[in-house]
Amino acid sequence: MAQPALIPSRWEDAPDQGAPQAELLAGLAAPEAVISPKYFYDPLGSKLFEAICALPEYYPTRTEAAIHATHQQAIAASVGQGCTLIDLGAGNCAKAASLFAALQPRQYVPVDISADFLHQSVAGLQERFPQLPMLPLAMDFSTTLELPASVDGQRRLFFYPGSSLGNFDPRQALAFLRRVRAALPPGKGDGGILIGLDLVKDVRVLEAAYDDAIGVTASFNLNVLNHVNALTGADFNPRDWRHVSFYNARQQRIEMYLEARRDLIVRWPDGRRTFRQGERIHTEYSHKFTEQDILGLLEQAGFGNCRMWFDQRRWFAVCHAQA
Ligand code: AVJ
C-alpha cells in the first residue's frame, strides 16, 4: 500500500479568471471565426490528446520523451537538483514524472486548464511519489502566471514541454516567455525554463502528425464543439463539420480548422451565426521552429545560457535557459 504523503497535496485556489463565454462568443461572431485551442481540453479532449500521443504518426511526444531519457543526466546538471518544478500544461503529468528521479524536485506544481483531468492525474501520481509535495493548480496560464504564495519563489524551473508554445503566434509566444522570465527569481542561479519545441521538417511528416489515418486528431478537433456547447449553450452539431489541417510553410505552422459541410445556422442564447458550406472556424496553430528561431526567441525574452538537446533525426529540441 502507498505511504501517506509527508506533506499532503492541496488544491490551491486559482485566480478568478472570469467566464469563458464572452471570449468564445466573440470568437464565433468574428468575420473569421475562431475558437482558442485551450478549449480542446475538456475531460474527453484531454483523453483524446493522450490518444494522439500514442498514434504512430504523432512523433513529438515520444521523440521528446526519448531526448529526456537519453540526456537526463546532462539536463539535470544544467538545471540543478532540488528545484520547484512548475509544469505548464501538465495533463497526465507523465513527462515531468519521468524526470523526477534525475531532477529531484523539492515541490511539484502541475498547472493545467483541465481541472478534473489534472486532479485525477495528480491523485495517481501522488501514490507513486508519496514523498514529493504536489500543489496542482487548475488555471488558464495563458492569461496569467500569478502563482499562489505557497509556490516556492526560489529556484523555480518552469517546464513547458510538448511544443505547446507553438500554439501561440510568434508575438504572443515572446510575450509569454517574458512573463515566464518575470516569474523567475533574478540572477543566474539554478532553475529557469526547460522547454520542448517541435522543429521544421519534411511537410509529409508534419501533415501526417495532424491528420492521422484513424481520425483521432479529427475527433480531438471536432470535440471542441461539444465543449463550446457545454460552455456557451450553443447548438453545434459535430456531424456538420469536417477536420481540416495543413502545413503553411511560409508561416512555419500547422493550421487546423473545422469546415462547415453545408450551409448552417448555429444558435446560442442571445445570438446566432450562419456559416456557408466550406466556411471555416480556426481552432489551432502549431508553429514549428528552427534552432535559430528558438535561440532568438529565448534571447529576446531575456533568457541566457541556452543549452539544447536533440534526437538523432533532429525532429525535436529540448532547451534549458536561465533567467
Ligand atoms: C499540445 C499543442 C503541443 O500542437 O502538437 C496535437 C496539440 N493538436 N494534435 C500540438 C495537438 C493536434 C499539440 N500541443
Automatic annotation (TrEMBL):
Molecular function GO labels: methyltransferase activity
- What InterPro entries does this protein map onto? EgtD (IPR035094), EgtD_Methyltrsf_superfamily (IPR051128), MeTrfase_dom (IPR019257), MeTrfase_EgtD-like (IPR017804), SAM-dependent_MTases_sf (IPR029063)
Q: Which interval of the chain is the signal sequence?
A: none
**Keyword annotations of the record:** Methyltransferase, Transferase
What is one process in the GO biological process aspect for this record?
A: methylation
Please indicate if the UniProt record lists Methyltransferase as a keyword: yes
**UniProt domain Histidine-specific methyltransferase SAM-dependent: residue ranges:** 22-322
Q: Name one Pfam family in it.
A: Methyltransf_33
Report the PANTHER family cross-referenced here: ERGOTHIONEINE BIOSYNTHESIS PROTEIN 1 (PTHR43397:SF1)
Q: Report the protein name in the record.
A: L-histidine N(Alpha)-methyltransferase
